[in-house]
Amino acid sequence: MAPVRFAAALLLLFTSACLAQSGPWLFAGFKNNGQDGVYYAVSEDGWNWSLLNGGKPVVRPTQAGELMRDPFLQRDPDGGFRMVWTWSWRKPLVAGYSQSKDLLHWAPHRQLEVMANEPDALNVWAPTLYWNESKRHWLLFWSSTIPGRYPKEQDDKNGLNHRIYSTTTRDFKRFTPAKLFFDPGYNVIDAVLIPSDGSKARGSYRLVFKDERTDPLQKHILMASGASLEGPWTEVSEPFTETWSEGPAGFAFDRGWLIYYDHYRSPGQHYGAVFSRDLEHWRDVQGMISFPEGLRHGSFLKITRKELDRLKAYQEGAQ
Fold first, then answer.
1. What is the distance between the alpha carbons of residues 39 and 58, in angstroms, rounded to a whole number?
2. Is 11 a residue whose pLDDT tops 60?
3. Which of 47, 197, 212, 218 is 20 to 30 A away from residue 123, measured at CA?
4. Distance of alpha carbon 230 from alpha carbon 236, whole angstroms
């Protein structure tokens, strides 16, 4: 095994094996409509976060009409980092994609045609990606509406009725045909995975997602259980956040799990958080967090002290 790959593999093993983790962490999110790019915030304790780069975006769009909403970061097992994001509200049916060696300098942005086999789809929202070590491929999933695929009475006022779809790839050039990944029987978006090894609850993974229904009003966060990274997903929980919550993301923390979410209702957009020791009982810990104003739906990444120091020293235009 190459030295870089071996070191990265050790770091991945360490971060996944330890439920009681110390910082630091990196958050990648966006502001407004995502037109300015991706903002970074960091935390050493998991509760208090500060913006980097003087409050300016660190990763900016590189193509005309490109948005950078819902950025999702992952560490590559071969070294470096990969990121996907929502490129547009509707078509083209692509996910944004780039890769980096240092989280600061990113390759030219690409459009991943993850829904090429479903040309009638309306959108590709909030893509995520995970390395499946046992299958040696990347799993990507996201939210899409395919008109006529599900009961029309479930459509929202904009004619959207989402389910979670997925694909896999080894090289981010060739993709398996998109297929249904999660369907609880109603409109859902913003799904992410949280490893649950070490909990007393059943299942090795939790799929955390937003119930998108409005009649009656739902718009809160739930989770389903799965025995593997790729499901199948069963045992949907009761909601554990307030209404008007979306964009959940979190990490193992202090012998438990901390999940942040974007309370997006205007006025009053802010980040909230809940904590659990067992992935079944949650308590609101919003009063314990400090999160930069205006940040929206993003993702968290465990980073090293060296990476933190490099990120904190970065100033756009000074490098």
1. 6
2. no
3. 218
4. 16
